[in-house]
Amino acid sequence: MTRRILTVAVKTELDVVAARQRARQVAALCGFNKQDQVRIATSVSELARNVYNYAGGGSVEFAIEGATSPQILRMRIVDQGPGIAQLEQILAGAYRSPTGLGLGILGARRLMDRVDIQTGPERGTEITLHKLFPREAAALDATMVGALGAQLAAPQENTTLLEVQRQNQELLATLAELKTRQDELLQLTRELEDTNRGVVALYAELDEQAGHLRRADQMKSRFLSNMSHEFRTPLSSIRALAKLLLERVDGELSGE
What we know:
Blueprint: E1 2-10, H1 13-29, H2 34-55, E2 58-65, E3 72-79, H3 87-91, H4 103-111, E4 114-120, E5 124-132, H5 142-153, H6 159-246
Antiparallel strand pairs: 1-2, 2-3, 3-5, 4-5
């Protein structure tokens, strides 16, 4: 079951901004957190910009699939343009046009749970984005979806200014998050350096101990060699003398 929320026509650059704003609003009203709101708004904005730049216009439709939790937010971006000739190369990450065609599609594939693309020279392009509702989000019935659509259909003033301010806030939040990640990375790097120094010191100590063991083994070997020689020398003499006596070389043994 699919319930349509709103459709935004994309004919001008202002419509691209409006599509981004509506995407963020729809995501917020559906219960998505701030990060998912930015992901959804960014994906829709990039694809709507492609529609404006390469197809001369189109539309963005927001709808909800499913009647019970977890529902799916579906965004369908449609145009009647020439289609995407290098789609396979774009999806493989091997194609880049001078204007950046393909980056929006690749970005949407990373940010969304599922992306379906249908394109052709005679049919234009239809890209459908799917984003699963958060587990804690309540299911929206037909009445709630209708009210949500009516709320979003109401005209808003200063759309461009408001969305630019919103994007600036999102950019600042992203920069702050990156700064935090950078600080964490630097701290981790310092900890790794300390660990590496400890490991190097440990290896040096192990090498020193191994040297002591090698020297002790060499000393033991020399000691055993010397002791063996010292034992063999008198024993050999005793054996020789005993053999002479037993063979009666000087005659029968006397009492002496």
